[in-house]
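User: Structure with phosphoenolpyruvate, tokens only please.
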Amino acid sequence: MARKTLVAGNWKMNLNHLEAIALAQKIAFSLPEKYYAKVDVALLPPFTDIRSIQTLVDGDKLLFTYGAQDLSPHDSGAYTGDISGPMLAKLGCQYVTVGHSERREYHHEDDELVNKKVRAAIKHGIKPILCVGEPLEVREAGGHVDHGCDQLLAGLKGLKAEQVAEQVVVAYEPVWAIGTGRVATQADAEEVCKALRATLAEKYGADVADKVRILYGGSVKSNNIAELVACDNIDGALVGGASLQADEFTKLCALAA
Ligand code: PEP
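Assistant:
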């Protein structure tokens, strides 16, 4: 089955809401409409920018979607500083990254919490982009495939097959490739993405596995996106640094289409 390519730009903790509007406008004007038939483009700005992006997208009927970089596992309550699924859904968020390695490392998020967040996103109709990927020492010890597949199964625990098929996006992001300029080779990325899809097939059936989009993330740029999306099991990219430059990001989206 044909899975539509997805390119998601993770802005991380960059850009205030005015800078966010400027970048989103540049992206909107630089990516011709014809590309959106082949590639879904999602911007994932910081929480404080989402309302501005929503207003822009709704007002100008822009063709890209947007989402958030995290959410609380809870719907509401005494959780100071957190942002819930219902709040993001009300802002029109279509995606939310969950389990990004920076959250796992700096906020000590474990697989159990990641799973709660995945379920919270799905409960509110937001597609979780579940991030998995090994640190360098695990790859060097040859444990990268098992590491990614274990994180995947833990993150999806308790979900029904149809929820996985319809709502989940997976992102394979080797930690050693994020923000380092060291992109995984085509073969290395495809090896893990293929194993992730096989794991989905084993657990939920081939039909489900066939529907789930698996992205690669880690130093993706316009000069390496084409070879990555040419792989059978890579359906797009989660892009960090390169998503902050309008020209580079739109070039990358066009090459992914
Ligand atoms: C990311 O933050 O998810 C990421 C892949 O970053 P970069 O593209 O900068 O490596």
